[in-house]
Write a structure and sequence with these properties.
2-methylcitrate dehydratase PrpD, 2 domains, single chain, 60s Ribosomal Protein L30, Chain: A, about 475 residues, about 50% helix, two-stranded antiparallel sheet
């Protein structure tokens, strides 16, 4: 690898999260938590201080549907995804409104407060264009006279990752400096005779200082969370949150498949099951449930669906699934390092497209594919067919078309892995080149098609709204 290149750790790419969006829910939560630590580290809190949170760009346009305001408040109260099961976001938001004070644990041991009432102090600025990234959060602390004493800006760059300005600029320079980054990583595995899973383990130890035991524990927890999301999605019923009143259907679909006995099937049972499993996870994500960023919450259903099908079809042990997760983590990390997985920056090609590439590579690895000729080809093939895909959530909710796109991504991944296994010779277009095209396509794409709910399907006027009028996000 080049001196300026940093492949994200597996723990950064695949991590526990809450739905419905990694960029718009998990990212703001993490930003709020970072700001809380920053305020507490000052060791003091002057009387009369007040806090204001401003969301810009895509966060402003679709933040309501993605619970961005609720998530940032939870982060300001020190919460992470693991805390939401015990205390829902809405409860924290309402309690904060009632108190009007953000309490801090200061270095001197005192718990002093800053005036903060979310319903008036969390602002959605849809007019001011963000300068560096469409997912921009700004925290402004005023003293008792109204003077600004702290002004902190964070960027939610995709997959729940949050950075500040200097880090964002450094990341852009790093990407441009390594035009063959992915191929270098893949060839390194090929020439050393090891798999991408083995290379990933070596890098976790050598670069990040994570022991094998620590990585294995993380992989085990990831697979438990992924499997749990599939199971909960299949068991749940009723309408998802939000004005669309979208009905959960994964469980009913699986029951129909199991009683259908092939009468109406035109694709394999494995592909159909993968679609249903992906929908189950995507519905769980849309309900604000616990999922794994793979690489984002909006695309969290693709990878677990494919791995679940492979495990069931081939009787694979959990150790094999853990290896596949390592491979998927490398592919997702390459996309993050070289391009982006944020729908607000590159569209849904960076979410479902990259998720499909991750799953295709993971499945190809489980099938015994070679690193360069087959795993790389599988990832490239899957991503190639999602190039140009817009991010256009109807009403700003991660439901339509997001849920079914997870199903499409899973089927595409299985097909790409299958094609890679039976294709001969080297591929003509590398995964590296496809990532470059994805990045440039995202830059060329108009902002209305990048998670603002101002274009694409989100702007369809004759949508069957089932009696729901004036959906937020529709063009006026």
């Amino acid at each position: 690898m080049g001196a300026n290149t940093r492949l994200p750790s597996l723990l950064e790419v695949l991590k526990p999260a809450i739905g419905p969006s990694s960029s718009h829910t998990l990212g703001p939560m993490r930003a709020g938590r970072l700001l809380r630590h920053r305020l507490a580290d000052r060791g003091r809190s002057a009387p009369g201080e007040s806090l204001q949170v401003i969301l810009y760009g895509s966060l402003a346009h679709t933040g309501k549907g993605h619970l961005s305001d609720r998530a940032v408040v939870a982060g300001l109260y020190g919460m992470g995804p693991e805390d939401v099961a015990a205390r829902p976001l809405e409860d924290v938001y309402e309690a904060s409104n009632a108190s009007g004070v953000l309490l801090l644990d200061l270095a001197d041991g005192t718990g002093k407060g800053i005036a903060f009432r979310p319903e008036t102090d969390v602002l959605f600025d849809r007019e001011t264009p963000p300068a560096l990234h469409p997912n921009t959060l700004r925290f402004v602390l005023h003293d008792h006279t109204g003077r600004i004493v702290l002004d902190a800006v964070y960027y939610s760059i995709g997959g729940g990752v949050v950075v500040e300005g200097a880090e964002l600029t450094a990341g852009a320079a790093k990407t441009q400096a390594n035009p063959t980054f992915a191929r270098t990583i893949i060839q390194r595995a090929e020439t050393s005779g090891c798999s991408l899973a083995e290379l990933a383990l070596e890098m976790e130890e050598a670069v990040y200082g994570h022991s094998r035991a620590e990585v294995e524990a993380h992989l085990e927890s990831l697979w438990l969370l992924m499997s749990g999301a599939v199971d909960r999605g299949l068991e749940a019923s009723g309408a998802l949150p939000g004005v669309l009143k979208t009905e959960r259907r994964a469980g009913d679909m699986l029951r129909r498949l199991e009683t259908d006995r092939g009468r109406s099937r035109i694709v394999t049972s494995e592909s159909t099951k993968a679609s249903i499993y992906a929908i189950a996870v995507a519905e769980e994500n849309a309900a604000g449930g616990a999922v794994v960023t793979a690489p984002t919450c909006g695309s969290a259903g693709v990878l677990p669906a494919c791995l679940r099908v492979m495990k069931e079809a081939h009787g694979l042990p959990n150790e094999s699934i853990h290896e596949a997760l390592l491979v998927a983590g490398v592919i997702g990390g390459l996309a993050i390092a070289k391009a982006s997985v944020a729908g607000a920056l590159v569209g849904c090609q960076g979410e479902v497209g990259v998720a499909s590439a991750m799953a295709a590579a993971a499945v190809c690895h489980l099938l015994g594919g070679s690193v360069l000729d087959q795993v790389d080809r599988a990832a490239e093939t899957a991503l190639e067919h999602f190039l140009g895909l817009t991010c256009d959530p109807v009403a700003g909710l991660v439901q339509i078309p997001c849920i079914e796109r997870n199903a499409a991504g899973a089927v595409s991944a299985l097909n790409a892995a299958s094609l890679a296994m039976i294709s001969g010779g080297r591929d003509r277009v590398s995964f590296d080149a496809t990532l470059e095209v994805m990045h440039q396509t995202g830059l060329d794409m108009r902002s209305r098609y990048k998670e603002t709910s101002l274009g694409g399907l989100a702007a369809v006027r004759d949508l069957d709204r089932d009696g729901v009028d004036d959906l937020p996000g529709f063009c006026s």
